[in-house]
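User: Quick one: structure for sequence A, then sequence B.

Assistant: Sequence A:
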Amino acid sequence: MQRFSSKGKGGMMKSLALSLVFSTLFIGVSVGAATTISSNITTGGNLTVSGTVGITGLTTMVYASSTGQSLTGNLQVAGGAAVGSSVTNSLAGTILLAGYTTAAEPTGVTQGTFYYNSTDKVLKMFDGTNWFTVGTTTSGISLSGSRLQFATLATQYLTLGTTTQQASGQGVVTLEATTTTAVPLSIVGYSGQTGHLLDVLSGTTIAGPKLLYISSSGGLFASSTGAFGGTLTVGGELTATSTLVVSGRADLNGQASTTRLSVFDTLYVGGTSTTTITGNNTASTIAYASTTAITNSGTASTSALIVGGNSINGTLSGLIFGTCDLQQTSITASTTRGVQCTTATGVSTAYKVFVMATSSLTGTLGTVPASNGFVIVSASSTAANVIGVELSNLTGAAATPAGTLNFWAVR
């Protein structure tokens, strides 16, 4: 009995050894060729693949306890990939992102996380602090052909250097300097520029009326009235192709080489051609206004007006005229006496005066009128607003002159 058992035991050992050998050979042959597995594969450890795993159908990778999938190398997808979506993506080279429709932004994420917001139709990325739109379909900034544009101007705007929209929330574009030396906007023309550097249009096309534009040479042109709140300084000539209207006072503080005001052609004063000042040896016309024609309140350093081209004897620095009233003083017959003519407004001792009677000078001989009257011998300015007049009595008796004199005074 014991001998039989030993013999039987040896046979069983031989059968087991042969079974192991054939199993090993079978596995080696099977792994060396393509293998199709029609059922699930479950492994309690790692599944190591030394070659390529080809997946032709839908593959679902179940989320593990700590990580979804860990991959130390590259993940290559021959077709399209779908992330977080139950919809199959069969378009090669594309990634389908599941739409995130929650109004609040995702929290608890790290920088570099991105998602597709299916409500706003935008792709957003987290920079570690905030979520920002990085792509768009129907809102925000879009690229249409070669044009970058806003999808709608009703709610969208652009700010550079700031996050605050200017113009009371209506500014489509806001440029703000970030330092004291920063230039908010620079316009650089092309070498040999021929087109305008800046156009402000009324309308939506380049052919629309130009409200304001800067030419290629830097000229500023406006289609309407230009209003300046401060001083307008022109380094070159100021040329008006139409009427130049100055509603306020015009002060010519500058001075040319020889004159204060240089006029190439006729200068019209008073709004009509009735008053003209013309050069080139042409006669000028100065029409008399309702009160005064020309008023000169100041005196130049050397002359105010040169008559006849003689700057020595032909210089006039003041010219006035008016009337004065004779002071009534009795003058002996056939004698000459000086009397004052008062109310000669504007006259001073610097003036040379000329007087004449408004009519025949008369006098009184008691109650009898003088028959021959008085003669003006000379006149001079003796005090402010007073002209001294020498009168000769030709009445033949003592008489008192009375009347008004006209005067001209120059200096």
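Sequence B:
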Amino acid sequence: MAEALAIALFATLMAALLLGFPVAFTLAGVSLLFAGIGHLLGHFDLVLFLGLAPRYFGVMTNETLVAVPLFIFMGMILERSGIAEDLLTTMGRLFGPVRGGLGFSVVLVGAVLAASTGVVGATVVTMGLIALPAMLKAGYDPRLASGVICASATLAQIVPPSTILIFLADILQGVNQAAQLQKGNLAPTPVSVGDLFAGALLPGLLLVGLYLAWVGIQALLFPARCPALETRPEERRALLRALLPALVLPLGLILAVLGSILAGIATATESASIGAVGAVLWAILRRRLSLALFWEATVGTARTTAVIFAILLGASVFSLVFRGLGGEALVTDALAALPGGATGALFVCMLVMFLLGFFLDTLEIIFVMVPIFGPPLLLMGIDPIWLGVLIGINLQTSFLTPPFGFTLFYLRSVAPPAVATSAIWAGVVPFVALQLLGLVLVWAVPRTATWLPEAIFGTSFAPSPPPPAGTRGPSLQELLGPPAPLGPLELPPLPPPR
């Protein structure tokens, strides 16, 4: 009966989210409802809710999560101060004389914006407003132009520093610790944000290379789809001079933020503070910072952070109730029974997340699904860094896939009426195939995700055999050991009489 309630809880939650109810309140409200039903039927112990207070306190005092609002603030300052417009204008004119040059520039600018802003919606809207009209005016095929813009914007999901990767690393740290304790490993290797940033770097660059290769193939085989622009020599020299403030300064900020993490000089939170201060200084140097812009970025950061952490707290209630109803054991047994062992279980989990990505936001999926699927997969010996990178690429792909990909709706909202919705859908299909190819390559060669963390930090998650079937992890009493025997009661001597 308890397992049936766990399944009903998950199904009801998915249905409520699809109906458009607020995510944070839906996660907590539906979970509390099923906790009450389970308690009345004798299958849920309300004492488990005592664990929520330490969980919430841990979230509020988690130094790693402090990096989230700092990175969001950095992205908002850079996005509102005109970095995207400068980059797209300068790079477009610089690569314009080459066939497919505008497409190349959009991919490269998308990668830079992904590493600086980390917000898919803002990136695709900005590039849709600036790059799409320019590409259409230059004679680009609307399908190719739409596909390049949408695909480049989704790089913000996987290219570090990404707020998605920060939350994913925090969740994987707890999941990996629980799985290793169940295996009997009392000193598990921690999963840090730096490890996941390093693991996602090469796969992110791989996707950038695949996008550039596709644009190059289009320029070679179908030059009419991406014609070159005519530029006078004196214009090129002027563009080279404009390239320094438009490209080098943002790249320097990105290298300072990401390089300090990968070099072990600073933690993710410390590097995020460097990025936030650097973004403000960059806006001052470019004479783009105003009190109104600073206030808008601050308020936007507070709103976004509040929404994200409200979802996280609501997801904590769901995770506790789902486990209290025996859902975690049910998922573990179901994945263990699948054919193909760890490979089959991982494929099913990736497929479920991919389909949920059509309807739910990335944060909602990782807050709900990773705590459910994570422990069984790690118990099967799957590397947590590799798993995190696969999840990132997978959700990035579903973010782009028609007909429900969120990126498509963002571009549709700013695209000219002459660009049909069917053209946007048709344009992203090749890039969805490229992302699936990238996912397959990272799946087939796990070292693409695990080599750099091992080379930089020495982080290695050597696979260990899962515990025998039907066994459970050690309890707290077992971990602490038996209580020490009490000796004879000894009282301190009385002081001498005066």
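Residues 2-457 form one domain. The chain has one domain: 2-457.

User: Thanks, that's what I needed.
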